[in-house]
């Protein structure tokens, strides 16, 4: 059975050639513990981790690969960045489209430390403007944290401008690149990004269970996890050297090997090519969905560039039911519900019903788009006719 996979915002699939093979090679040939031994296999495993850090550094404009720390996903990376940095009395500015991976840690710190949070709203055109963030800055503002792009509507935030704003006001800038890593240009130096959290299994085309966090030299986070690192083992305290300070426990060498191949694939294809491919499919989807009676799409106008994410609903139909029909009757994989971003749904006016989300990747084509449009047309007509 052939599947039309349109759930790349949750996890990209299929993976590029070589990802699986790199992971199998680790298991077959050198599945030793990196950083825990001086023998040949342990050194080879350690080299895989470092080589992938180097590849990620190329992609993100990072000067020192040791400032990139591996985690199982972007959620844990965001928790390390937020909880390891924020202190009692701090004020944090964020956006109203944040994923729960940002919102929940912030709200936890609001309850436990009494920090204050400002959620900046988009304007009527569903876009975010620099001045709306700037006017919320107070003397106690210590962190600006935003998603690079929405996982619900695909709207892109002005990261470079926000980074410059944060720098001018001496505010630490944290970016959630869950929907942009591997899709949109990111240069942490040029964009004044102090911390960058990213997943490995989405736009970087690595396996699930991979992700990471970049932290600039001048920031020392309090580690969330303490334990064995393979270095400074005689000390009772966590090591001070990077990346060991933030990577306790055995690394996911198998997953990182696959991630390295995924990152190499992105570097070879080129960010611009990948983004334009996904955006053109999303743009056509938005334009064609709007012509179908009973269908409502969300986010900025179809003429406004976004990542390859399209959210919609069909009048009279529950979003989960539509996604179920797409899967069972048309073999089209989408996601429905609240997409872990209740804030985003409040902003889009879909807090009472959620939405169906189709998200495109590099392996999708116009045939996939046509399959989606045909299916939505038939489903919409069926609900109109009762």
In terms of topology, how is this protein built?
Layout: E1 4-5, H1 19-29, H2 40-60, E2 68-71, H3 74-83, E3 91-95, H4 100-113, E4 116-120, H5 130-134, E5 141-147, H6 159-168, E6 172-176, E7 195-199, E8 211-215, H7 253-269, H8 271-289, E9 295-297, E10 309-314, H9 319-330, E11 332-333, E12 335-337, H10 342-348, E13 355-359, H11 366-384
Parallel strand pairs: 1-11, 3-4, 3-5, 5-6, 6-7
Antiparallel strand pairs: 2-8, 7-8, 9-10, 10-13, 12-13
Structure characteristics:
single chain, 11 helices, Aspartate Aminotransferase, domain 1, 386 residues, seven-stranded mixed β-sheet, 13 strands, alpha/beta, Aspartate Aminotransferase, domain 2
The CATH class of the largest domain is Alpha Beta
Total strands: 13
* Gyration radius, rounded: 21 Å
Termini Cα gap: 29 Å
Give average pLDDT, whole number: 94
> Remind me, CATH topology of the largest domain?
Aspartate Aminotransferase, domain 2
Return the string of H and E elements: EHHEHEHEHEHEEEHHEEHEEHEH
Please indicate the percent range of residues in DSSP E strands (runs of 2 or more): 5-15%
Structural class: alpha/beta
Q: Widest sheet: strand order? A: 2-8-7-6-5-3-4
The CATH architecture of the largest domain can be given as 3-Layer(aba) Sandwich
Helix content: 25-40%
Q: Would you identify the regions where 5 or more consecutive residues have pLDDT less than 50?
A: none
CA-based shape: globular
Number of domains: 2
- CATH homologous superfamily label of the largest domain: Type I PLP-dependent aspartate aminotransferase-like (Major domain)
């Amino acid at each position: 059975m052939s599947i039309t996979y349109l759930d790349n915002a949750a996890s990209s699939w299929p993976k590029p050639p070589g990802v699986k093979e790199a992971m199998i090679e680790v298991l077959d040939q050198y599945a030793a513990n990196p950083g825990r031994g001086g023998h040949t296999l342990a050194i080879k495993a350690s080299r895989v981790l470092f080589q992938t850090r180097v590849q990620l550094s190329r992609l993100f404009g990072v000067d020192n690969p040791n400032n990139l720390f591996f985690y199982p996903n972007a959620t844990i990376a965001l928790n390390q960045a937020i909880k390891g940095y924020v202190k009692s009395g701090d004020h944090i500015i964020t956006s109203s489209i944040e994923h729960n991976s940002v919102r929940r840690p912030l709200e936890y710190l609001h309850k436990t430390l009494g920090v204050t949070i400002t959620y900046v709203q988009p304007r009527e055109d569903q876009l975010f403007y620099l001045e709306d963030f700037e006017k919320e800055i107070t003397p106690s503002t210590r962190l600006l944290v935003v998603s690079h792009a929405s996982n619900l509507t695909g709207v892109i935030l002005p990261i470079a401008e926000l980074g410059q704003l944060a720098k001018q006001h001496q505010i630490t800038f944290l970016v959630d690149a869950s929907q942009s890593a591997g899709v949109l240009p990111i240069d942490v130096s040029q964009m004044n990004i102090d911390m960058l959290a990213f997943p490995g299994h989405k736009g970087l085309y690595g396996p699930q269970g991979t992700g990471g966090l970049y932290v600039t030299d001048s920031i020392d986070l309090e580690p969330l996890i303490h334990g064995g690192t393979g270095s400074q083992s005689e000390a009772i305290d966590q090591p001070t050297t990077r990346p060991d300070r933030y990577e306790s426990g055995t690394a996911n060498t198998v997953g990182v090997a696959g991630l390295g191949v995924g990152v190499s694939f992105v570097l070879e294809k080129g960010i611009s090519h990948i983004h334009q491919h996904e955006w053109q499919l999303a743009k056509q989807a938005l334009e064609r969905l709007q012509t179908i009676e009973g269908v409502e799409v969300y986010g900025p106008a179809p003429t406004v560039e976004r990542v390859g994410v399209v959210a919609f609903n069909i009048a009279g139909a529950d979003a989960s039911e539509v996604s179920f029909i797409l899967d069972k009757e048309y073999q089209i994989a989408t996601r429905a519900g609240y997409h872990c971003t209740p804030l985003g749904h409040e902003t889009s006016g879909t807090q009472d019903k959620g939405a169906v989300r189709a998200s495109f990747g590099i392996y999708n084509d116009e045939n996939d788009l046509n399959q989606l449009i045909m299916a939505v047309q038939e489903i919409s007509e069926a609900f109109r006719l009762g």
